[in-house]
Amino acid sequence: MAKKNADDSRSSVEKPRRKWPWIVLIVVVLLVLGGGYYHFTHDVANQVPGNSYSYSNPTTKRKLYMTFAKTGNEVVVTQSKSQATKAAGSDSQFENVWQKQNKSNGGSWRYKADGSKLTLAQMKTNNKVSQWQYNNVFATSHKLTSHSFTYQIANAGQGNVKQKVTFTKIN
Q1: In whole angstroms, what is the distance from residue 12 CA to residue 5 CA?
Q2: Sorting pLDDT into bands at 50, 70 and 90, what band is 37?
Q3: Cβ–Cβ under 8 Å, residues 118 and 133
Q4: Residue of 52, 64, 74, 162 lying closest to 123 (CA atoms)
Q5: Edge-to-edge strand order for the sheet containing 63-68?
Q6: Which of 112, 127, 145, 150 has CB 3.0 to 4.6 Å from 119, enough for a Cys bridge?
């Protein structure tokens, strides 16, 4: 009987709940999510070299294809998917397509991928430069996504566009 009363008294006293395991779990989850977000928003420089992407211009509704050099800062920008995929074939094919594009367009295309920004620049033979900078790029293995970009077009002006832009990998 005494044993039964002792068990009853233990069961009627509630044990204090430990809050620290839940706090630790929440902190770990937030660190993992924050680290993943940081990785994907600062991985542009690792994703673009040697790859081809399609891009639908939000203002003109035109589709462009871009192939980035494996080494260096050159990029082929074309409306022809076959030219973009051909440029992605090998370093020599990329160089051939890039040189042809420079001659036919009267200038060259270059890029810079740094942190969460991707900048494309078109340099004309008359030293006029037009550039587009995509901000806060979220880079995965299949897509690059930006929710805004700024542009500066030689002899035409500049601006800031707050529209979602997606580059979809095609190779």
Answers
A1: 10
A2: confident
A3: yes
A4: 74
A5: 75-78, 63-68, 52-56, 165-169, 143-146, 138-139
A6: 112
